[in-house]
Amino acid sequence: MEGIQFLTNDKGRKVAVLIDLRKYGELWEDLYDSLTARRRAREPRESLESVKKRLRKRPKMNG
Q1: Facing residues of 4 across strands?
Q2: What is the DSSP code string of the chain?
Q3: Is this structure's pTM higher than 0.85?
């Protein structure tokens, strides 16, 4: 596939990938977001109301 290269180990197994971000930057962002979401799936959740409450307590920036 043009714009994608694989790095292999001494046994010929793919161990890394090089992605042309000019060509596949948006795809990489989607993949990265998906991996981040999976990694954080078991983290504790915070309700929207508690986030709003915490943000209201912060001093306003720039005005």
Answers
A1: 19
A2: -TTEEEEE-TTS-EEEEEE-HHHHHHHHHHHHHHHHHHHTTTSPP--HHHHHHHHHHSPPS--
A3: no
Structural domain range at position 39: 4-57
Per-residue pLDDT tens for 25-61?
999 999 999 999 999 999 999 999 999 999 999 887 6
Q: For 19-29, b where at least 16 C-beta lie within 10 A, e where not — what string?
A: eeeeebeeeee
Residue 63 lies in a domain: no
